[in-house]
Amino acid sequence: MFKEIDHYNEINTKLKFSNRIEDLRKKYQADKQYFSSRIHLLTPLQIQLESLLLDYENEIYFCREEPSLISHKLQILPKNEKFFDVNEINNDFPRRILREAGKMYKCAELGCEKIYTSLHGLKYHREKGHLSSDYDKKPYICAKTGCKKRYKNSNGLKYHLEHYHKCK
């Protein structure tokens, strides 16, 4: 009688786990389609993070061992073992990654990878970040022979002259 109950419990556990894997695989497919439909709205960092998560889910749900083997391993793990929960991932991410994920305004200049959290930041970058020549960027030039230093403002040039071209 106990062997039948154990056998029934084992089959039931495998069936539940198999159904759970199938549900997760369906969710993965839906998430993948959703990601593809909105990729044009994401920043490069968001695309990289989302792709990383999708690749990880693909590895878990499609490329690993058969569900029956996994369920057997789950049965022998201690009951108080804390499992990694994908829903808790935001709690584990470093603040820098979360902060950068919120940056939505990317500079459209060819070769420029700057991304900003506000439209104002991007606007300022466009006005000040892509000036046409060194004369526009640093119009204050050191007049000492052989020195090619340039500065954005007169105070920078003044400091340079006082500290680097002292009378010796």
From TrEMBL:
<keyword id="KW-0863">Zinc-finger</keyword>
<dbReference type="InterPro" id="IPR013087">
    <property type="entry name" value="Znf_C2H2_type"/>
</dbReference>
<keyword id="KW-0862">Zinc</keyword>
<protein>
    <submittedName>
        <fullName>C2H2-type DNA-Zinc finger protein</fullName>
    </submittedName>
</protein>
<dbReference type="GO" id="GO:0008270">
    <property type="term" value="F:zinc ion binding"/>
</dbReference>
<dbReference type="InterPro" id="IPR051580">
    <property type="entry name" value="ZnF-Chromatin_assoc"/>
</dbReference>
<feature type="domain" description="C2H2-type">
    <location>
        <begin position="140"/>
        <end position="168"/>
    </location>
</feature>
<dbReference type="InterPro" id="IPR036236">
    <property type="entry name" value="Znf_C2H2_sf"/>
</dbReference>
<keyword id="KW-0677">Repeat</keyword>
<dbReference type="GO" id="GO:0005634">
    <property type="term" value="C:nucleus"/>
</dbReference>
<keyword id="KW-0479">Metal-binding</keyword>
